[in-house]
């Protein structure tokens, strides 16, 4: 084989610095009542994707081939996003458990969140399967790279701020995802897809509430430097993830197939939103999030995008 034509090997990531576990004294008493209530609520409202969703009523054959193909892309992309939680949530749970002096309530809550994310993955895979099967990966390498975010490494990294992680991904990002899912539900004419989205929205309301409640609990103790760190991570997330098309593929030039599929599914009532609809969600959410963040001492700047404008 001509070695000159071989691609260079990918660099090996540096080891992730981890905390040394300090288990004692063991603190399990409730300290953040709102988060403990989310944990109890999640347990009380547990559901079973196989038992509680009427899968036999999802008749993909009544849609034409172009719509079925679009549904495969749209629900596969949702699956790619949701599947990140299968690595991220356990990693975040470990971080809360090994970092000294962290409260018990997030540890309890994250055990439930991980289960709910597994149910969402199950449902999204079933929907894609009904329409012809899950798509294994994005069309372009550039868009695929956006999904390899290694959040599990960030969550575990002892040199990175856990509070900044929670604000960015558990409050801000999960809150945006919740609002997008509400938009999908408003445009879900199929009763089975509507039932899935109703279950997911109820779960995601708890997920986003966890992030904001924890941020509110921690904010009084943040230093100016910690607030600058949190602001920097939020800005980086918006510019390199959200405005790059992670949740809204029409924002990315590399995601033409995925963006077109969402438009078809929106027209067919299969639980998607148009680009204009998602743009309205983004603008509205950013305005609301800025107010919440300002109350925590975080000033989120405006962002510019050629397709979204100023938001």
Automatic annotation (TrEMBL):
Highest rank taxon of the organism: Bacteria
InterPro entries in the cross-refs: Ferritin-like_SF (IPR009078), RNR-like (IPR012348)
Name of the protein described by the UniProt record: p-aminobenzoate N-oxygenase AurF
């Amino acid at each position: 084989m001509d070695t000159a034509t071989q691609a260079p090997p990918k660099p090996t990531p540096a080891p992730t610095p981890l905390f040394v576990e300090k288990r004692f004294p063991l603190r399990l008493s409730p300290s953040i009542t709102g988060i403990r209530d989310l944990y109890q609520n999640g347990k009380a409202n547990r559901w079973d994707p196989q038992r509680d969703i009427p899968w036999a009523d999802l008749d993909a054959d009544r849609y034409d081939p172009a719509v079925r193909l679009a549904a495969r892309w749209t629900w596969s992309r949702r699956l790619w996003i949701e599947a990140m939680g299968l690595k991220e949530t356990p990693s975040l749970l470990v971080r809360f458990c090994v970092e000294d002096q962290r409260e018990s309530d997030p540890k309890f809550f994250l055990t439930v969140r991980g289960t709910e994310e597994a149910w969402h993955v199950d449902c999204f895979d079933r929907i894609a399967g009904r329409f012809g099967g899950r798509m294994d990966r994005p069309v372009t390498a550039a868009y695929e790279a956006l999904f390899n975010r290694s959040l599990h490494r960030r969550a575990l990294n002892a040199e990175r701020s856990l509070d900044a992680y929670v604000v960015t991904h558990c409050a801000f990002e999960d809150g945006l995802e919740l609002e997008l899912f509400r938009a999908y539900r408003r445009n879900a004419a199929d009763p089975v897809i509507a039932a899935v989205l109703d279950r997911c929205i109820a779960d995601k309301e708890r997920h986003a509430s966890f992030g904001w409640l924890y941020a509110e609990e921690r904010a009084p103790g943040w230093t100016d430097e910690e607030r600058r760190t949190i602001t920097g991570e939020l800005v980086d997330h918006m510019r390199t993830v959200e405005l790059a098309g992670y949740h809204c593929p029409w924002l990315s030039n590399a995601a033409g197939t995925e963006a077109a599929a969402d438009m078809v599914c929106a027209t067919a009532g299969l639980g998607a939103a148009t680009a204009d609809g998602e743009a309205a969600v983004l603008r509205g959410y950013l305005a609301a999030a800025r107010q919440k963040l300002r109350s925590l001492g975080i000033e989120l700047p405006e962002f510019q995008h050629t397709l979204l404008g100023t938001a």
